Amino acid sequence: MRKLFGTDGIRAVAGESPLDPKTIYAVGLALAHQLQMSSQQPRVILGMDTRESSEWIAGVLAAGLSKGGAATESAGVITTPAIAYLARKHRFSAGVVISASHNPWHDNGIKIFGGDGYKLPDEVELRIEEEIFKQLATVPAIDPSAVAALQPKEHYRAEYEAFLLSAVPALALGEMKLVLDCANGAASAIAPELFARLGGHIQLTHVQPDGRNINADCGALYPATVAAETKATQSDIGVTFDGDADRALFADAQGRVVNGDAILLLAARDLKTKGLLHKDTVVATTMSNMGLEAALKRDGITMLRAPVGDKYVLEMMQANAASLGGEQSGHILFPHLATTGDGLLTALVVLDIVRRSGKLLHELLADLKVFPQVIVNIRVKEKKPLMEFATIADTIHAAENELNGNGRVVVRYSGTEPLARVMIEAESEALMRRHADFIADAIRDELGA
């Protein structure tokens, strides 16, 4: 069982284990040795988000990689999907991103892609973990201030922007009014120039990162922010990204949040019309709303559910040869265009669909009837199997029995934070909230931090 890698790499408070300098250096060593199994002279491309810790973490990691025999090139501040794209395009042995995605500024993380542009399989991460723990026994103390800073090569960002424009070549925004919330994160380095080339009337918000304001009351973690701004400015669409811009959420002209479920419906219909929705199948997750499943079914589209985590969505897509998948949180996968979720790419695809339709976003989604859904997060001290606790199991079973097929109960641990998540959907909002509170209280009593 993996101890360091969650569903999206290694993530923790910057400077604290496992993101202390010594462990980060060991990660670089272990990754370099793993890459040498298939390349005598491995090359790694590295990017980062805007957190104040990202630069020193990148420097320490690169030092470990160098000691292990791998050369590193830096793309500087850039989005996670950009690194996946560049690793594949330039045949790097791996791509690494220093980011904690939607987490607050004091957290950070290490995400690793293979040279094919895909996230590493669990078994490879486990092998790297095992060597990290071995290296920790001998690695000396590391002083980040003594490690040379990486010098970014600016052309990589320009290459990625060119790729985005080529992926949706006919897009021109005309007189469309947009609000773009860049979360003071990696999108701030790309979105202004990218959208300036597409026309339209663009209002950019949260594009002044200072190292500590990433995701602060903005971005995809706070979609109501862009929704309110979209309505207040009478814009057509709002788009909001998370810290590393691998996902995007939207707002319609009426000031309502449009999440990943709605985008899956929009994209599935468009791909089916074009004859590109293979097997008329879409892969979502256990968190996706029953309303999405019902809307897709009316269009003759089958929805499969994968565990939460875009890497697991991708695995199910590959197993079923599906051409579209994603998460409610805004990770949308277009395998004919990219190897991983990409918030900027998703935004361009959605804008293209809206432009070609001649309709507003809320008009295209008018028939999506969403079941009431509540998600409760409970901070936990450890992640023991929940169903081993009789009180938790009994409370979950009671909720499932009373809902009796007219709703869903999903209880799981976060893959990136010390949280248990309780999600309930039901036709009755009162019933939904009552059972969510009961289950959350049971978890809190047994495992609460």
UniProtKB/TrEMBL annotation:
Query: What EC number is given for this enzyme?
Result: 5.4.2.10
Q: Which SUPFAM superfamilies match?
A: Phosphoglucomutase, C-terminal domain, Phosphoglucomutase, first 3 domains
| Gene Ontology MF terms | magnesium ion binding; phosphoglucosamine mutase activity; phosphomannomutase activity
Keywords attached to this entry: Isomerase, Magnesium, Metal-binding, Phosphoprotein
**Catalytic reactions on record:** alpha-D-glucosamine 1-phosphate = D-glucosamine 6-phosphate
Please tell me whether the keyword Magnesium is annotated for this protein: yes
Asked if the keyword Metal-binding belongs to this entry, the reply reads yes
Would you name any one GO CC term?
A: cytosol
Q: Cross-referenced Pfam families, in alphabetical order?
A: PGM_PMM_I, PGM_PMM_II, PGM_PMM_III, PGM_PMM_IV
PANTHER family assigned to the protein according to its UniProt record, in alphabetical order: PHOSPHOGLUCOMUTASE (ALPHA-D-GLUCOSE-1,6-BISPHOSPHATE-DEPENDENT) (PTHR42946:SF1), PHOSPHOHEXOSE MUTASE (PTHR42946)
What job does the chain carry out? Catalyzes the conversion of glucosamine-6-phosphate to glucosamine-1-phosphate.
Stored NCBIfam families: glmM (TIGR01455)
Protein known as: Phosphoglucosamine mutase
Organism of origin: Silvibacterium bohemicum
